[in-house]
Specification:
Strand content: 5-15%
Structural class: mainly alpha
Distance between the termini: 61 Å
Shape: globular
Domain ATPase AAA-type core: 73-137
Helix content: 40-55%
Largest sheet: 2 strands, parallel
Pfam family, one: AAA
Organism: Arachis duranensis
GO molecular function, one term: RNA binding
Order of helices and strands: HHHHHEHHE
InterPro entries: AAA_ATPase_domain (IPR050168), ATPase_AAA_core (IPR003959), P-loop_NTPase (IPR027417)
Strand order of the largest sheet: 1-2
CATH superfamily: P-loop containing nucleotide triphosphate hydrolases
Number of domains: 1
């Protein structure tokens, strides 16, 4: 045991073989949807680029100049209009993980359980940062 040690190459090889627990529990990694998969919407793409993607890709620039960036965007529209596709493309372009939550999954009849589930979602998002959390099918 005195001569047992781990080199950086050993560690890097192990990282390739180990699957993070968040991924095993159904949370996806970076989606494979690209901007090319989203037709048109150039104005919307530029808005996402400036408010979400660049701050995630280049956080040091925003920190250096103490620029506050947007942390949320509301997409709305009827089912099937491409909200999920756009959100996945944004996550892919930013190199961020993507957590897709359907609104009803958070609802619970017991007092405090829905709130606990929301806290759990954001705790997991922090653990796999950078991360885009997409709440779908929300009923207000």
């Amino acid at each position: 045991m005195d001569k047992l040690f781990c080199t950086m190459s050993d560690f890097q090889e192990a990282v390739k073989k180990v699957q993070p627990s968040l991924r095993r529990e159904g949370f996806s990694s970076v989606p494979n949807v690209k901007w090319e998969d989203v037709g048109g919407l150039d104005c919307l793409k530029e808005e996402f680029e400036s408010s979400i993607i660049r701050p995630i890709k280049y956080p040091e620039v925003y920190q250096t100049f103490e620029v506050e960036n947007e942390t949320e965007i509301l997409l709305f529209g009827p089912p099937g209009c491409g909200k999920t596709l756009i959100a996945k493309a944004v996550a892919n372009e930013a190199g961020a993980n993507f957590i897709h939550i359907k609104g009803p999954e958070l609802l619970n009849k017991f007092v405090g359980e829905s709130e606990r589930e929301v806290r759990r979602v954001f705790s997991r998002a922090r653990a796999c940062s950078p991360c885009i959390v997409f709440f779908d099918e929300n009923v207000v």
